[in-house]
Design a protein that fits this description.
Helices cover about 70% and strands about 0% of the residues. By secondary structure, it is an all-alpha fold.
Length: about 200
């Protein structure tokens, strides 16, 4: 039993490192097996396919993002402060997992307004996205249409992703200057715009 867990862990470590080096599409099962020191048939004893490996590699970080976002969401801070803090947390998380950002948020993605998702990874991603959506919805007029709400949430999400993509590869970290940019942008676009 212990050796089975070790083999499974080696497969996940190998996949994680390969996904950080190359795009998800470029990495094959045989390559994962070679790096893990096992045969490709061994992988199929633990995982049905590469999508299942992706889910396992991404689930712990995505669950961590969700749990902290949920704690912020449920705090007694003002709705505006909770929205800002969730956004800052998302970017800090993106900096922490910069080498895996595409894997965690983009690979095998589906439209956010689908009634249901075909890939389990997107169900995980949506847990945090829905917290962001709820917070944004709370600061906007109740009369806003669902379509406009989704557009604003998408735009905010893309802004947060853009901050990660543009700055997380450097050595600056999520510093005070970047935090000010995010706070100023969100304050101007969302928090002071209640009559959209």
């Amino acid at each position: 039993m212990v050796s089975e867990q070790l083999t499974r862990d080696r497969i996940l470590e190998a996949a994680s490192s390969l996904f950080a080096e190359k795009s998800f599409q470029e990495v094959g099962i045989r390559e994962i097996a070679k790096r893990a020191g096992c045969s490709h048939t061994t992988i199929y004893l633990y995982f049905k396919n590469k999508d299942e490996i992706l889910f396992e590699v991404a689930s712990a970080p995505l669950e961590k993002l969700y749990q902290t976002s949920l704690e912020i969401y449920q705090s007694s801070e003002s709705i505006e402060n909770r929205l800002l803090e969730v956004c800052h947390h998302f970017i800090r998380f993106g900096f922490q997992y910069a080498s895996s950002n595409q894997l965690l948020f983009i690979v095998e993605g589906e439209e956010v307004d689908l009634p249901e998702f075909t890939k389990p990874i997107n169900q995980l991603r949506m847990k945090s996205f829905n917290i962001l959506k709820s917070l944004i919805q709370a600061v906007l007029p109740q009369s806003i249409s669902e379509e406009k709400l989704f557009n604003i949430v998408r735009g905010t999400y893309l802004f947060l992703q853009g901050m990660v993509i543009n700055y997380a590869s450097g050595d600056c970290g999520y510093n005070e200057r970047l935090q000010t940019i995010v706070t100023d942008y969100l304050t101007f676009t969302l928090l002071n715009r209640k009559n959209l």
